[in-house]
Hints:
Elements: H1 11-36, E1 43-44, E2 59-60, E3 64-65, H2 68-84, H3 88-111, H4 125-148, H5 151-155
Helix pairs in contact: 1-2, 1-3, 1-4, 2-3, 3-4
Amino acid sequence: MAKDIAATTTPEHKAVQTVRAMATVVAAAFVLAGILGFVPGVTTDLGSLTWAGHESGAQLFGVFQVSVLHNLLHLAFGVVGLVLARSVVGSLRFLLWGGVAYLVLWAYGVIVDHDHGANIVPVDEADDWLHLGLATVMMLLAAVGRGLLTPRAAARAPGYPTD
């Protein structure tokens, strides 16, 4: 039986697809960042890449300090996002809670001295600003995505009041 084309072009279906696409693009960007963190030329001083810690001299695009752990975290976060983006609720959760996680990571980067042993990820000032921007964009996309959904679909999304 042929699938009804009209059923896949309803406003609700388009909204769901848009939300899933937003999460997919963000997640794919994290996977790409994780991979690029291991690519010579894209990551400068790759020979000084360490497992973890602030001693790593490698910098993605010559700006963002990275380590093996940092790159693997980006890869894992991106893969989790791609899995969650398979559903609209998962997409919204990834965008919202991923944004919250990056807000916490931003606070961590602001509080921890960049040359201290506690800076294991590692983060530097450029990373701090990037994390704040990512947190803002991800949470904004979650809010916009939730606003696109019908009340029924939004009721399943995170943050919906349950009176």
